[in-house]
Amino acid sequence: MTDPDLRTAAHDSKAWPYEEARKLLKRYPNGKPATDGTPAPILFETGYGPSGLPHIGTFNEVLRTTMVRNAFHALSDQPTRLIAFSDDMDGLRKVPDNVPNGDMLRTHLGKPLTRIPDPFGTHDSFAAHNNARLRSFLDQFGFDYDFASSTEYYTGGRFDDALRLVLRHYQGIMDVMLPTLRAERRETYSPVLPISPKTGIVLQVPVEVLDADAGTIAFTDDDGERIVQSALGGLSKLQWKVDWAMRWVALGVDYEMAGKDLIDSVTQSSKIARVLGGRPPEGFNYEMFLDEHGQKISKSKGNGLSIDQWLTYGPDESLAFYAYREPKKAKQLHMGVIPRAVDEYWQFRGNYAGQDLKQRLGNPVHHIHDGKVPDETLPVTFGLLLNLASLPGVGDRDTMWAFLHRYDPALSTETHPALDKLIGYAVAYGRDFVAPTLNRRAPTASEAQALRDLDAALASEDGTAREGEDPAVTLQNHVYEIGKAHYGKEALRDWFRVLYETLLGSEQGPRMGSFFALYGIDNSRRLIAEALAKAD
Per-block average pLDDT, block size 10, for the chain (536 residues)? Predict the structure, then answer.
């Protein structure tokens, strides 16, 4: 049972998962009607096309749908269910670039994915392989879902009644679809795609409905022969917009989101669902991810990030954080966004414990962890770890931990397991993306004098606390005072840039007091000496 205070706050929260979940309360103010005497679950759905491997968009859609589902649990005690639906009856239209045995796959173009051999040689079919990858992929992140196969639903008769409904309303569906098609496409368009009894290919041919109740159709096969056969039991499938609508009606889907590129498809499928006597689900259209050049991410182009790439350099919580923020705003997705996402996730997580209930419900980490936010905090930022890992001779886990132990002897892999994981990510990211770009420039004469003053200030410190003050704070105060003396209070940004460019070799960097405390006084003075040597 949900805490009453949480429920009250959730009803008023402006966080987008709660706003979406309230659509379902409005949809069923008295609860979803039961069909067999038991409470009917609110049904959430996500779709997956298994002609390719699961990717970051798949994660994104299931994650966001799960966040709405969790938000609904805070608003209502009604049961819910999430179906991850695989469109594995689709005919293979082209051979993906990232799979083996492409020549073999080309001989099966047009056939349902479940009737094509697995090019990897590990499963009964190409669809079975990709479905297994999908389930493993979703299980990796702990999603609560029921897997559904289009092929199993079609061939097992689960969709037969809905297919009869489509045949009965064949002309009404045509009236929705034909105005949206080009003239030449209208000549061959059919909502129903029969599967050739000779070749096994999903045919794109006109269909004549002979007996809607019996499910009998007629069509001309590729060789010109007129075929009369059933549309039921897996002998046909539907065009995907019609299929989407049929699925909503047949399964009673209440919520499904989709990318902005599918707005027109949602519109047409919603009209078809109403033709079938059903009610389209609630949902919203999220914006697409872009690459660093502002171009839409494409699997065939290979631009943007894969989920494996992100998880090589940042934890899954950081990816979830990035996906949560502003779902209706286009966002660039490239290697450069990972460090900021990691640090912002931990910033919001660090704020969570001190927030009131209303603030917590608006905090992204509440939705990432479904209100069960872990207690562990970070003693240093990920950005600081990256700067440290990118310095010569530091880029390995043991050396990083040596610096951290000196910074705070209480830190260990046992007390801070999340920190230990972040060190691994920082070492990998620093090695691959930061260290190769570093270029420590020589300071100018005036900058060199400021650095000498900074060196003198560091020499007066041993890195220990002064009257209970954090050593990092003491060192940061020195940085500020020297900066104000040389650059003025209004131009401290210029001073910080000097430190970043001459000591770290980058345009941006961490709080230098924290960096000096972590790196150590002697090591930090050595960096300054190396910079001054370039000025001589």
Answer: 88 97 95 80 92 77 96 95 95 86 92 93 93 88 95 96 98 96 91 96 95 97 94 96 97 96 95 98 89 63 72 95 92 90 97 96 97 93 94 90 92 94 96 90 94 94 63 92 93 94 90 92 93 88
- Using DSSP, how many helices (H) and how many strands (E) does the chain show? 24, 12
Residue 257 near residue 66 (C-beta atoms within 8 A): no
Angle between helices 338-352 and 417-429 (to 10 degrees): 160
Name the phi and psi angles at 375, rounded to 5.
-85, -25
The CA distance from 126 to 122, in Å, is 9
Place of tokens 């210029």: 494
Among the listed residues 247, 254, 226, 195, the one whose alpha carbon sits nearest the alpha carbon of residue 32: 254
Alpha-carbon gap, residue 148 to 85, rounded angstroms: 5
Element holding 209 (H helix, E strand): strand 208-211
CA distance 248 to 535: 70
Q: What is the CA radius of gyration of the chain?
A: 29
CB contact at 8 A, 362 and 15: yes
Residue 439: CB atoms within 10 Å: 7
